[in-house]
Design brief:
binds glutathione; alpha+beta; Glutaredoxin; Glutathione S-transferase Yfyf (Class Pi), Chain A, domain 2; globular
């Protein structure tokens, strides 16, 4: 029985789950669900009508963090969450940080304004983007820079913490923004190294193709 992932690949929360599935080598089926235009009945998968949702047999789950932790418990191979209680909690901390502190700026401002507005035929709010890039994100990047241990955030190896943070940075890159190397060398290198992993490269290539198609560029 394969899990079924509901969502759209350009969502960073769906991306987090896709990356986890790919890095763990879990086969799954996908069902395209476009946010804000969810089909009737989608509430049975996610009552908030957000993406992602996931089903495994009779089980239905919503929210990327809940899904990621469920998948980790159900498919323990290629562990992406440490067993040690403290490291596990650190991993959860960075995942939460990415989902709730970075996302408002990387995704819900930069990506939404530069990409989603364009798709809707609207002008991006460049003032809001400027504020996100120059005021809101720098303190978060300073914090993340101070927390990096080598190439990883937790346990000196790849974990869900890295996946969650990089998922937000990918949305930021899709929006045409980067983490400048001069200001945040460790964070910039972390992101470069993360993208070089084969499973990540494949997903990123497919996302870029989708973006080109959507934007007609
Ligand atoms: N905390 C949630 C966030 C999910 C989320 O906000 N998804 C967005 C797309 S990136 C969505 O579905 N938005 C539609 C809506 O809020 O109605 C998670 O991690 O799954």
């Amino acid at each position: 029985m394969k899990p079924v992932l509901y969502g759209a690949p350009l969502s960073p929360f769906v991306r987090k789950v896709r990356l986890l599935l790919a890095l763990k080598g879990i086969e799954y089926d996908s069902k395209m669900i476009v946010p804000y235009a969810t089909p009737e009945g989608y509430e049975q998968f996610n009552p908030l009508k957000r993406i992602p949702a996931l089903t495994l047999g009779e089980h239905t789950l919503a929210d990327s963090a809940v899904i990621a932790h469920f998948l980790e418990a159900t498919y323990p191979d290629h562990a992406l969450i440490p067993d040690d209680f403290f490291l596990k909690a650190r991993c959860e901390w960075f995942e939460k940080y990415a989902d709730y502190e970075l996302a408002p700026h990387t995704t819900f401002t930069a990506f939404s304004q530069r990409i989603l507005s364009r798709i809707a035929g609207q002008q991006p709010d460049e003032e809001a983007i400027h504020k996100a890039v120059h005021d809101k994100l720098p303190p978060h990047f300073d914090y993340l820079e101070s927390q990096l241990q080598g190439n990883y955030f937790v346990a000196d190896r790849l974990t869900l913490a890295d996946i969650a943070i990089a998922s937000q940075l990918i949305s930021y890159e899709h929006a045409g923004e980067t983490v400048p190397e001069q200001e945040w060398p460790k964070l910039s290198l972390f992101y470069k190294n993360f993208k070089q992993k084969l499973a990540v490269e494949k997903i990123l290539t497919s996302e870029k193709a989708i973006l080109r198609k959507i934007l007609g560029s």
